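__Record contents__

***
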Amino acid sequence: MAIISVIGGGQLARMMVPPASELGVSLKVLVESAQSSAAQVVVDAPVGAATDRDAVRTLVAGADVLTFEHEHVPHDLLRELIDSGVSVHPGPHALAFAQDKILMRDRLSSSGFPCPAWVRIPCDDSAHSVISSFLAAHGPEVIAKTARGGYDGKGVRVIDTSTDLDDWLVAAQEGGPELLLEEKVLFTRELSALVARNPSGQVAAWPIVESIQRDGVCSEVIAPAPGLTDTQHAEIQQLAIRVAEELDVTGVLAVELFDVVDPSTGQPRIVINELAMRPHNSGHWTITGAVTSQFEQHLRAVADLPLGDTSPIAPWTVMANVLGSQLPTLTDALPEVLRAFPQAKVNIYGKEVRPGRKLGHVTMSGHDLDDVLAHAREAAALLRGEDISPPHTKDNS
């Protein structure tokens, strides 16, 4: 039996468990606490931080490969593991571009990939001058980001004056993450391209999806993204595959994109926003909406197994996140949700309820996008403890 070690005990590691069992793979998961999502479903999951060298070394002992459910793992530790003979996927040379936005922007821009205009903010007295110059060229508002540590809208700020970042500049000068500025792209929607690549170089891509954000957090995903021509769809898939190959990514790669209309030409274009080198929220729909889920595919990829079929199982699939709830626990709503929507696929992460927290998701598939979208939203609303009666129905007479 192959043994795959995973750093991180959140819902992504939790959702690797069913396909691992089906493939006959044994998962060893380093969890942050005994109450974490993955710890509830993985036998004898050791507790420890991703920065704990002893815990990580114990985790990989006897394993065939090490992978991750988040990117916050020290680069030098991974290098040490590789030097000692551990197989690490994705490798630290690739993971660095998901860990550091300045490295990512520099590499993608120099390789000719479509990116927003951007600049690194120096940690010295010239910082305000650089910010003012960038605002003059790309304002009136621009996006400031911390190079490391940001996710789900954290570490991102919209600014319109050079003094809006004074607190971040102080933190950066005191050893905190470096900062960068990006133009505030006028996009019509957000897209996500999910691909997988194994060490042998085989690649596979799922349909491009539309990702709907609320307060900087993914709320819904529509697969495939409505309104793309076959040519546009193929071009975006090839863009994501090129990124995976250029950066030597192994495992699942999510390329988050802005769908932009160029103001000077009126023509659509695609701009890369972020990268994630692991299973991703925009790919949860694949668990029940594709022949091979992103979680099974990630395990196949890091173990250098042949990749699976990524075809969708229905014309439309919608995934709706459950962000916070009025209920003490989401399972309280299960009878009502499953009675109202027997076709719903519910995934609950076992987390303590907190406002805005990702607690689970609902997936629906079908032939009518309006119905599928409405039902997914209504089922997620029930899990949040909201009243949706009467539920959405469509007259098919």
User: Anything to note?
Assistant: The radius of gyration is 21 Å. The chain has 13 helices and 16 strands. The mean pLDDT is 93. The first helix runs from residue 11 to 14.
